[in-house]
Design brief:
Number of domains: 2
Distance between the termini: 29 Å
Helix content: 40-55%
Low-confidence stretches: 340-348
Strand content: 15-25%
Mean pLDDT: 93
CATH architecture of the largest domain: 2-Layer Sandwich
CATH class of the largest domain: Alpha Beta
Radius of gyration: 20 Å
Length: 348
């Protein structure tokens, strides 16, 4: 099945053309970083307007790069949620209108579902596996038993890891987005000078918490009375990154052991972090687990990642109805139920 997929959940407008849920023919992204950088974070209204301006020409460009026409498209997939409601509505409205005008089957896909399955676009990872979805808005652990068969094991009770990276970068006077900057500086820093806490690391559950870690960083910065030089900033970045990676790594490995799983997929924007990748790759050799990362493009918010689930749903006859709407908060457990098919229901 030849799919056109659309992602507008936050501040990237993304469109892809994918064949059979695996072969990427095009995967284009227009970033809004320059628009939001001066505000130190995403401004929802501006994000929506940028999506409106970008989506039509981006669809045309994705079709052209894939060397296909709309007449050849057999299905359309769009991110229904979660995300910024205004941004989501741009993608959902466009997808619904196009599907109606062309009489093409439409399916709404969960944003996190796309992330935890994105690795299947590059390599066949056998089910079941444990998935750590970690990004600016999400820090979740799922057991993945197949497409549409997910069980939530743990999640952040406050801030997501990616948000914590951006907020700490802002505290240090670093540019937005802060995650890549923290990662770069951490390589130049010494984490031994200050140790930040590892919240909930000893708790028996698999939930995360990063708000206290941010507070600890802020308290330390204030204790320096404005005497932060480049090396001290790099040291803080290294110590903070080490703490975040330690929590994510240890909780994920413990969840894998408890579930009896020997495969781990790390997905989402924070999966690009070099410290996180190195930590998991090293653990893979000592813990007897296979660790998989999507390539950096597929870790970011992109449209191709929607095709893995969408191709499967559409092939089974599942469809989103004409009243499909965007939802800002949408538990993954609910993601399959709007298809009205038992086999598409995602269990918890």
């Amino acid at each position: 099945m030849l799919l056109l997929t659309i992602e507008t959940s936050c501040d990237e407008t993304a469109v892809a053309v994918v064949r059979d849920g695996r072969e990427i023919l095009s995967n284009l992204i227009i970033s809004q970083i320059d628009t939001h950088a001066r505000f130190g974070g995403v401004v929802p209204e501006l994000a929506s307007r940028q999506h409106l301006q970008a989506i039509c020409p981006l669809v045309d460009a994705a079709l052209e790069e894939a060397a296909v026409t709309l007449d050849q498209i057999e299905g359309i997939a769009v991110t229904r949620g979660p995300g910024l409601i205004g941004a989501l509505l741009v993608g959902v409205s466009y997808a619904k209108a196009l599907a109606f005008a062309r009489q093409i089957p439409l399916v709404g896909v969960h944003h996190i579902e796309g992330h935890v399955l994105a690795v299947q676009l590059e390599q066949q990872v056998p089910y079941p596996y444990l998935a750590l979805a970690v990004s600016g808005g999400h820090s979740h652990l799922f057991r993945i038993d197949g497409i549409g068969r997910y069980r939530l094991l743990g999640r952040t009770i406050d801030d997501a890891a990616g948000e914590a990276f951006d907020k700490v970068a802002k505290m240090l006077g670093l540019p937005y987005p802060g995650g890549p900057v923290i990662d770069r500086l951490a390589k130049l820093g010494d984490a031994s000078g200050v140790r930040f806490p590892r919240p909930m690391l000893k708790k028996p559950n698999f939930d995360f918490s990063f708000s206290g870690m941010k507070t600890s960083v802020l308290t330390y910065i204030e204790s320096q009375c404005g005497q932060l030089n480049e090396q001290k900033i790099a040291n803080i970045a290294a110590s903070f990154q080490e703490a975040v990676v330690d929590v994510l790594l240890q909780k994920t490995l413990r969840a894998a052991r408890d579930e009896g799983l020997t495969r781990i997929v790390v997905a989402g924007g924070v999966a690009c972090n070099s410290g996180l990748r190195q930590g998991f790759q090293a653990a893979g050799g000592t813990e007897a687990v296979d660790v998989y990362f999507p390539s950096p493009l597929l870790c970011s918010d992109n449209a191709a990642m929607l095709a893995v689930a969408a191709d499967d749903y559409l092939a089974r006859g599942a469809r989103s109805s004409a009243d499909l709407n965007a939802v800002s908060n949408w538990p993954l457990v609910e993601a399959g139920r709007h298809f009205g098919r038992d086999e598409c229901v995602i269990s918890q």
